[in-house]
Design goal:
Blueprint: E1 14-15, H1 24-45, E2 51-55, E3 58-62, H2 68-73, E4 79-80, H3 81-88, H4 91-94, H5 98-101, H6 104-113, H7 117-128, H8 131-135, E5 144-146, H9 148-164, H10 166-169, H11 173-193, H12 198-204, H13 209-237, H14 253-260, H15 268-299, H16 302-315, H17 321-326, H18 328-340, E6 347-352, E7 356-357, E8 363-364, E9 369-372, H19 374-378, H20 394-405, H21 435-452, E10 453-457, E11 466-469, E12 472-475, E13 481-485
Parallel strand pairs: 1-2, 3-9
Antiparallel strand pairs: 2-3, 4-6, 5-13, 6-9, 7-8, 10-13, 11-12
Helix pairs in contact: 6-14, 7-9, 7-21, 9-11, 9-15, 11-13, 11-15, 13-14, 13-15, 15-18, 15-21, 16-18
The structure holds protoporphyrin IX containing FE (HEM).
Protoporphyrin IX containing FE binds next to α3, α6, α15, β6 and α21.
Cofactor: heme
Organism: Periconia macrospinosa
GO molecular function: heme binding; iron ion binding; monooxygenase activity; oxidoreductase activity, acting on paired donors, with incorporation or reduction of molecular oxygen
Length: 493
């Protein structure tokens, strides 16, 4: 079977091609607005077989679930995840091509951030204490309209900033703007350019304001952070500074990056660029999760009672990193919310850099771009009964049952634990390295939010709908809702 990027792989059925007469640009346009339905139909029709769909930049193979484990274990030099991400986010136009040369943004989270969450959590709790008062315009005697996207962008960027750039820069308005707006301008450019054939993108890209905005935000970040990195690198090289794990001022990426960077990565401008990539990976993912969870709980308020009771029990012995692990009902709610509103329709994207034959005999040629229908898998009634219902304690019940059957081990059906049918964080060794940090931040913000505030949707409105474009799922930034400060609400932080 011969595959050239852009040609239909022989014998693999094509989905979403309403007519062979329709040109690729039209099919791509349809996919941009109907990806959920196209992928869902493909998944249901070809559950155990590969099919493919047409995008403007070529075909994508939609692999069946039975290839997930093998796919996740294929080394990156054969099935490249960073090439797929760079390709998808159009690195040439958006400044993320650095991920092809450096993996530091990934390893730094695994090696430095996650093992230090116990020290990082109290620092974030301290930062969170004043954030709602600062950004959420709420009073206890009346309902106030607010835009969740606006408020949670501020809260998420401030908490991420404390971890990314440390105590001195975490309130710097320029950094906070970069950490939110770089991602927004990047996605605006990608969303537009993905409607256009690759051959004309290099002409149209520079005509987009968002293209220049991303470059400008990257320039601002480098201007701000490079001198800080230069100074610390110099001090580290000359033995004047060493990472001190007991010093709160060292609990941030600037210190960890300087302590870890080697070779080509050991450069102030590169490290500043990595900080922007980390903001890209963390701020909006957390923000989207917070908004979806708020919507889901406002639409299903009985769960708010459940989690308040749980928070009350947990906080009686004080807050520490283990407290967040004990919020099992909240954990289940976050998982359920992510199942219904994950970041993407398809996941586990890889570009094959060499031919590969799966153990099932399915052969993938070099150049093939593959993915799995993660949203359809998680929402398959055979996997999740009544998937259209928000059942906040679905995973909690499964967790209790598996704890009984595994003689007390409590490690399954947890928000941060990917499963074959729960793929919002990816799967296997390549799964999102930031999920443990995200877990703590999300739980911390939820504790504060539901202890101290009440929420409702706008008059005569129900849960705002998600917005699907290409294969991304977003909350709509323009949606509003109402908030009131609780009279008797007292917060943990
Ligand atoms: C609820 C929030 C989040 C979700 C749903 C999420 C989801 C994902 C997914 C699906 C992947 C791709 C995994 C794969 O391809 O196998 C990923 C990768 C990644 N995530 Fe997250 N993530 C979240 C939060 C975070 C946070 C807070 C950070 C940083 C602290 C982070 C850092 C990363 C990084 C560095 C990668 C790897 C990118 C690469 O390989 O170049 N994520 N995430």
């Amino acid at each position: 079977m011969v595959y050239e990027h852009g040609c239909v792989l022989e014998k693999v059925p094509v989905i979403g091609r309403y007519s062979v007469l329709l040109p690729r640009t039209i099919l791509n346009f349809i996919y941009a607005f109907k990806s959920q339905q196209i992928i869902e139909r493909g998944y249901q029709e070809f559950k155990d077989r590969t099919c493919q769909f047409i995008r403007i930049d070529g075909q994508m193979l939609l692999l069946p679930l039975n290839l997930l484990e093998e796919l996740s274990s294929i080394p990156n030099h054969i099935a490249s995840r960073n090439k797929a991400l760079e390709h998808d986010l159009l690195g040439r136009y958006t400044g993320i091509s650095l991920i092809l040369d450096s993996r530091l943004h990934h390893t730094i989270i695994q090696r430095k951030l996650t093992p230090r969450l116990e020290q990082v959590a109290p620092v974030l709790e301290g930062e969170l204490a004043g954030l709602f008062e600062e950004y959420l315009p709420a009073s206890s005697d009346r309902w106030t309209i607010f835009q969740p996207h606006h408020v949670f962008a501020k809260i998420s960027s401030r908490l991420s900033a404390r971890m990314l750039v440390g105590p001195e820069l975490c309130r710097n308005e320029e950094w906070l703007e970069v950490s939110v707006k770089f991602t927004e301008s990047l996605f605006t450019s990608v969303a537009i350019l993905r409607f256009l054939p690759p051959c004309i993108r290099s002409f149209v890209g520079p005509l987009l304001p968002s293209y220049w905005q991303s470059r400008n935000y990257l320039r601002i970040a480098k201007g701000l952070l490079s001198p800080v990195f230069e100074k610390l690198l110099e001090e580290h090289d000359t033995g004047k500074w060493e990472l001190d794990n007991t010093n709160e001022a060292n609990l941030n990426m600037i210190a960890w990056l300087v302590d870890s960077a080697k070779g080509a990565d050991r450069d102030a401008s590169t490290l500043a660029h990595i900080e922007v990539l980390l903001a890209l990976a963390s701020v909006h993912t957390t923000l989207q999760r917070l908004i979806s969870t708020l919507y889901d709980l406002t639409a299903n308020p009985s769960y708010i009672e459940d989690i308040l009771q749980e928070i009350g029990e947990v906080q009686s012995s004080g807050w520490s990193i283990s407290s967040y692990a004990k919020l099992r009902k909240m954990d289940s709610i976050l998982r359920e919310s992510q199942r219904m509103s994950p970041p993407t329709i398809v996941g586990m994207k890889r570009i094959f850099q060499a031919p590969y034959t799966f153990t099932t005999g399915f052969h993938v040629p070099a150049g093939a771009h593959v993915c799995l229908p993660t949203f359809a898998i998680e929402n398959d009634p055979a996997v999740t009964p009544s998937p259209e219902i928000f059942d906040g304690l679905r995973s909690y019940r499964k967790r209790l049952a598996s704890k009984v059957s595994s003689h007390g081990k409590d490690q399954e059906h947890i928000f941060t634990t990917p499963e074959k049918t729960m793929l919002g964080f990816g799967f296997g060794k390549t799964a999102c390295p930031g999920r443990f940090f995200a877990d703590v931040v999300l739980k911390m913000v939820c504790v504060k939010m539901f202890q101290e505030y009440e929420f409702k949707f706008m008059e005569a409105q129900s849960r705002p709908k998600n917005f699907v474009l290409h294969d991304w799922i977003f909350t709509r930034p323009w949606d509003t809702m109402m908030v009131r400060k609780k009279n008797n609400g007292f917060g943990s932080f």
